[in-house]
Amino acid sequence: MGEFGKVLLLALIPAAGVIGGGLVGELMAISRKARSMALHAAAGIVLSVVAVELLPEAITVDPPWAAIVAFACGGLFFVGIDRAVDLIASRDGESWGQSQKRNLTRWRVKSPPR
């Protein structure tokens, strides 16, 4: 197996995890608390990856405050996008969560009876 084959196999591992997690999420009833905990864990993993991989390089930036300003601008941009989505969804008279719930229940695979 060549180098490309090894890279391809290693790339299939997270792809299989995403597909498997999606299937589990569709076939099993998951409580709001469990979903919240999973999302918070994913956010923590992303922040730890950023801290380990990007911060050592960001510290070496010539003006050290530039990394802090860039991080703050990214956070403000995210909050702005979140508010814009809520504003657009509220034009229909419903919150973003309500419209997403309505759209998801239409396509959701029904769990087998227990």
What is this structure, in a nutshell?
This protein has 114 residues and is mainly alpha-helical. The protein is 79% helix and 0% strand.
What structural class should be given to the helix and strand makeup?
Answer: mainly alpha
Give the quaternary arrangement of the chains: single chain
Low-confidence parts lasting 5 or more residues at pLDDT below 50? none
Distance between the termini: 46 Å
Query: What overall form do the CA principal axes indicate?
Result: flat
Order of helices and strands: HHHHH
Mean pLDDT: 80
**Strand proportion:** under 5%
Beta strand count? 0
The gyration radius over C-alpha positions equals 20 Å
Tally of helical segments: 5
Largest sheet, strands/sense/barrel = none
Helix content: over 70%
Write the layout of secondary structure elements.
Elements: H1 3-27, H2 32-53, H3 55-59, H4 65-90, H5 96-107
How would you characterize the overall build of this protein?
- The protein is mainly alpha-helical and 114 residues long.
- Helix content is 79%, strand content 0%.
- The protein contains five helices and no strands.
- The chain has helices at residues 3-27, 32-53, 55-59, 65-90, 96-107.
- The longest helix is centred in the C-terminal third of the chain and has 26 residues, at 65-90.
- It is flat.
Features:
mainly alpha; 114 residues
